[in-house]
Amino acid sequence: MSFKAEYIWIDGTAPTAKLRSKTKILGDDAKGGELPLWGFDGSSTNQAEGHSSDCVLKPVFSCPDPIRGGENVLVLCEVLDIDLAPHASNARAALAETAERFAAQEPVFGIEQEYTFFSGGRPLGFPENGFPAPQGGYYCGVGADEIFGRDIVEAHLDNCLKAGLGICGINAEVMPGQWEFQVGPLAPLEVADQLWVARWLLYRTAEDFGVSATLDPKPVKGDWNGAGAHTNFSTRAMREGPEGYAAILTACESLGEGSKPLDHVKNYGAGIDDRLTGLHETAPWDQYSYGVSDRGASVRIPWQVEKDGKGYIEDRRPNANVDPYVVTRLLVDTCCAALEKAGQV
Ligand code: ADP
Ligand code: MN
Ligand code: MN
Ligand code: MN
Predict the structure, then answer these.
(1) Whole-number mean pLDDT of the chain?
(2) pLDDT of 138-191, one tens digit each?
(3) Which atom of ligand 1 is nearest to the CA of 238?
(4) Other residues' Cβ atoms within 10 Å of the Cβ of residue 4
(5) Is 168 within 8 Å of 177 (Cβ atoms)?
(6) Least enclosed by CB within 10 Å: which of 25, 38, 95, 260?
(7) Among the listed residues 3, 61, 66, 1, the one whose alpha carbon sits nearest the alpha carbon of residue 34
(8) Residue list, ligand 1 pocket, CB within 6 Å
(9) pLDDT at 160
(10) Which candidate, 68, 48, 67, places its Cα nearest to that of 56?
(11) Residue 222: pLDDT band by 50, 70, 90 thresholds?
(12) 40: nearest Cα among 55, 20, 25
């Protein structure tokens, strides 16, 4: 029997790329084997000019399709030019190289994806006119006065689990209609591929409820939290004692050296200076800091990690709209190079 393969890719929209997808019907012969290359019109996705518009889709990750069920699959692709070299919009290729170079350090990530539901042009749960009660009760709340969209969130969680993604938790966030899911801990390419598929499933699941989801880092101006993508990171040396804590401090220090703070922040998602203001549990975008349990620092060392003398660090700066291929590449590149130099591998 033939089956449906939903080919998903990341487009060339600036400053923040969008997800696109289309369906390919595949025959029995494609089952279990390698999924075929495909193509699309790059002139409709900001990836090519009209006069030479063909781009190539190369499958890099596939999983069961929880929406269609049966033998149908989701297929995440990277975009190539017709000479099969990575397209300019393809950030995965550079991560693959960096991850390979530092694979011996066994880097691992868990990414906390915050997002906001919108309906009728405003966040789900916001009244038609004016504003809801100020922040305070919504985070991890319960009850119809505090929680908006839980049915969608539960459906998305179930879909991620059915797809076999490494989703490890969900919670309601600080603003009404704002939520979070976490993916990981996984190796760099795995966490980034699976986060992109989990994002696609979020949009697709919410679509059936007539609601949209956005990764806008500051969906409501004023005294409302932005949306981030805290990126938790460790290497084998950081996870394993007895020198784990020394490796953790090396990683934290490396992120503050020279031009590193800006190199990172300017690639952590468009509009980051609107979110990293120094208020709402953020550190100012132009000042790097790290600290134990400090949710006002750029990078937090969880209290349990200090107590155990090993574990991971949390980079709190990435925006919700960050490209996971980029943030994981930068963290591996900066921290693993410093750990290698210090002989902490
Ligand atoms: P927070 O208290 O910041 O809200 P969460 O529970 O939302 O924390 O997220 C913690 C994240 O840390 C999860 O995504 C999890 O996968 C990740 N994590 C746990 N252990 C490690 C580790 N050793 N290395 C990298 N990430 C880790
Ligand atoms: Mn969290
Ligand atoms: Mn959060
Ligand atoms: Mn966090």
Answers:
(1) 96
(2) 999 999 999 999 999 999 999 999 999 999 999 999 999 999 999 999 999 999
(3) 23
(4) 16
(5) no
(6) 25
(7) 61
(8) 108-110, 112, 168-169, 182, 184-185, 230, 232-234, 239, 311-312, 314
(9) 98
(10) 48
(11) confident
(12) 55
The structural domains of the chain, ordered by start, are 3-89 (3.10.20.70), 98-341 (3.30.590.10)
Cα-Cα-Cα-Cα dihedral of 322, 204, 95, 47, to 10°? -90
pTM of the model: 0.97
Q: How far is CA 267 from CA 213, 280, 320, 323, 328, in A?
A: 22, 21, 12, 8, 11
| Partners of residue 214 on adjacent β-strands | 116
How far does residue 318's CA lie from ligand 2's centre (Å)?
13
Q: Distance from CA of residue 299 to its chain's centroid?
A: 17
Neighbouring C-beta atoms of residue 222, cutoff 10 Å = 6
CA of 140 from ligand 3 middle (Å) equals 10
CA distance between the termini of the chain: 50
